[in-house]
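Lecture 7 notes. Example A: sequence first, then its structure tokens.
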Amino acid sequence: MVAAGRERDLEARDREHRFAAVGLVADDDDGVSAAGGGVADVRGRCSRGEPLVDLGLAEAERGCRLAGAQQRAREDGVGLHALRAESRPELAGLRTALGSQRTKLVRLSRCRLGVSDEDQSHRGVNDSLASMAGYRYVVADVFTDTPLTGNQLAVFTDARGIPEERLQDLAREMSFSETTFVYPPEADGHVKMRIFTPSEELPFAGHPTLGTAFVLAGPMQLVEIRLETARGTIPVQLEREGARIVFGRMAQPAPAIAPFERAAELQAYLGVESRLPVEQYDNGVQHTFVAFDSPDRVAALLLESKPLLELGIHGVSCFAREDGHWKTRVFVPGVGVDEDPATGSAAGPLALHLARHGEVEFGEEIEIVQGVEIDRPSRLYACAHSPERIEVGGSAVIVARGEFRL
């Protein structure tokens, strides 16, 4: 019994270490990298509630590696090292101008210098700020390599301190299609991930999975990250150019497939007769697929959520072939999203739908263009190797970092 208890403790510690190596780093500006094979180990938390970690590196190795964002900051002249490059008279003038309001410098684990929180320098003005919980997040644009396009995603990279009742509130406040919250793993993943739309929690979704993989795997130099979801553990393979992730490819849950019972009413509302059977696929999110004969007719759609909801539509994907790719528009009224800029959970089933009905071969990758009509152009890649093996890929870019104080 003692041995069994010790084995459970070791398993729990292994899960914590996997999370420490990925999820405990609030974002890739924290300068933590496991490239040398070290395992990040939690040593405490600093004033914001962010983790202080020890990478387990030998003394000679410490400080010899920088996370990608930290290196970019050095190249761009951002950070405390930039102050060191200023002339002494200019620094003296700066100190004089700031006077007693100068921000204090504090020591962080594995960092020689760091800047104290903004609330620390104002405690005399408003002591209540010090007692507020800080929840840090990263914003990524997903299924694009161009900032301010694609599908927006907020990733709360260490959600352990967020009260359960705050999760939906935060997702509603972000008002993106989805927001993810990262926790220590419970099974065979690096982390556990929960996915929320502005109105509800989802068991799985595509762009949150890919975006979270980009956010977490970036500073850790991983080539594969495994994300636990309510629909199982999703592996995401990552491709890099140097230290930068440029592409990710996720395996998706096999969807359940059924005819859509109100297909005639749906086609009448859309004003189209589908070229393929109108069927519903469910891999965690339900999508009904309608094949148009022209991409122009897809582009011209003006749909309202209420009639779709009355037809029992959770999500509908309207698509047509266009110049070597597939043009799609996806409306997801069932989760409060009028039109989605990029829908990974629909991209995989679309590839399967096309393969099942002879439009493409099994094993053939398709390219999907989405989000153009709402000024968030996105590009997705999907392949149905078989009904049970489906992959969806694309790029993502990190565009912002922030913190909620509640």
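Example B, a different protein, same format:
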Amino acid sequence: MKPRSLEGVMKRVSILYLAIIAALLGVIAAMGYTFLVTGKTVPAEDKRSAIVLEPAERSLVLTEMRGFLIAVQAITEAVTRTDAKAIAAAARAMAMAAAGGVPATLAAKLPLEFKQLGHGVHEDFDRIALDIEALGDVKHAHTQLSETLKKCVACHALYQITAPATTGR
């Protein structure tokens, strides 16, 4: 049997290390794709994607959505009174400052488009507040709110929030 050279052994070890690194990068890429893009969804009966969340997670998401709806109602009411200060206050309540506090475990379950739509709505509320304070144009704020609501409609057309399936034990 011919003895192996140190150079040959080192070459094989290097190839093995590169293969392990490539495999780990593949796993990380798959996890990143799942975490950032797909989330935890299943097809829903009504052709939307059902985002599967634990009860506390579901409650957090639905509470935020109700907050959006409360802000929309308050802004709409303020528009009818041409009350720029009330529009700004209602918009600020759901602006980017209100977007924090989503646990990483929940964020991983949310599809990228869902996260983008929600983030966009928070940004829109920031813009409504800034613009109404700078311009005082109630009609412009109303137009901005109408554009924001298109994101809400799109999100509700694409997704539903559901709890994990249970076995009837």
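Note on Example B: Residues 6-38 form the longest helix (33 residues). Helices lie at 6-38, 55-80, 84-93, 104-109, 112-135, 138-158.
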